Amino acid sequence: MSLALLPSKAIRRSPRPQYLPVLDFLAPSWPSWQPIARKACMATSAPNAPPSSPPPPSANPPSKPLTKEQKDFLDSALRVNQAGELAAVLIYTAQTPPLTRAHPHLRPLMAHMYEQEAGHFAVFNALLAKHRIRPTAMYPVWSVAATALGWGTALMGREAAMACTEAVETEIGGHYNEQVRVLLEWADERRREGAGLGAELEELLGTLRRIRDEELEHLDIAVENDAKEARPYELLTDVIKGGCRAAIWVTERV
Amino acid sequence: MATPTRLTRTLIRSSLRPLSKPITARHYRAHDSPPPAPFTPAESAILSAALSHVPANGFTSTALRLGARDAGYLDASTNLFPRGAFDLVNYHLVTQRLALKDAVQFPAGERIGVGKKVRTLALARLRANEEVGVVGRWGEALALMVQPTLVPASLAELARLADEMWFLAGDTAVDSSWYTKRASLATVYSATEVFMTQDQSAGFKDTERFLDARLEDVMRVGGFLGGVGEWVGYTGHSVVNVLRSKGVRI
Prior knowledge:
Chain B: It holds the Pfam family COQ9. Chain A is an all-alpha fold. Helix content of chain A is 73%, strand content 0%.
């Protein structure tokens, strides 16, 4: 938990390079999920930065059909993503009224994060419908759980709400990066065989990168808004992170 | 007619693949590569020939054998189909499900409700039983499908059919209604199919009426449940908002 041990001020003041395309290439090869590394990776691409990976040199290399394992991976990955964005939308929806009532200055911030999450949710809804992937059977359960989580943490106060955002976005950001890494591995594999990823997967890769960066931007926002001051910080974030991981595990399966 | 030896060899080669494992609807569909064909050419040849013997011989191993003979294979080649007559039923189900997207074309300009499209699709699928000529023998097929060991395969195929119909009707909802929609359509469709086996009316008018009545039932129940949900949601929101306006910190 290196991030947790760092004083929050150091993080806040750490200089953030505007655009470091090299690090985005490194992201997939990072062996494990070190929060510090993630911070660096996030900083590399601001939401409006140009796509940091250049298109493959050959304009339109032939793509090849996906194997069954690859299809199954995309099937469960996109299902988890949709469920995650559903939860994120509901968490922010439930957090906003109690939070903005106590701290009106947070209103634009909450609206900004909510709008981005709603955008992600729409993206994954469209992808599920397009590729005929079933939504998770736990849909109603996650809806209730996410609303309860958002509302509960907002009642505990601003710091707890931000700690909730931090915990959720840490897990989600890691999850998206995992998927980006898998897609890049596929791309590597295909490049060795002289094939391309195909327009569909290239687009998905771009979408996942953009969404990952936006989720990690929320993580930054939460830390800047005193997420670390929440009491009891460790307990709260660990419980939420554990819940997220369990939910992802279940959603991959049902 | 080709030589039996060569044909047997083709059959053996094609049987190395798990036999007629239907492509599952339940994983990611890539749009830049077409899905693999559900049956090998040899299987298709035998099964489609066998299907033409169903009106006379029913869904039996006799029909399969006659079909194999018609397609120029040995009688023993029916061993390719370990589930026997059920593989014949399955072939009909799979091919008709996949044919549905070409059988029904909705005019692009007009705005037709999803419910109406689903009705058209269900009716088109039922009519296919009549057109292929298996409707008189469909009772036998249903009897095969409800055999305990074959129930999972039959239900899976029914689920795929319901999924195909909602997809072709242009439904893009991906929330919990995804499940309820498919379950209710599958129920309605299978009930109508059972009804159709007993229908003696001209042009299966009674079946059509039966289907309409069942779809209406589903819509009435769905509308009622939707109304209840809306009421609960509205009341809940009102209570929370009233409490907030009274200064309760929630």
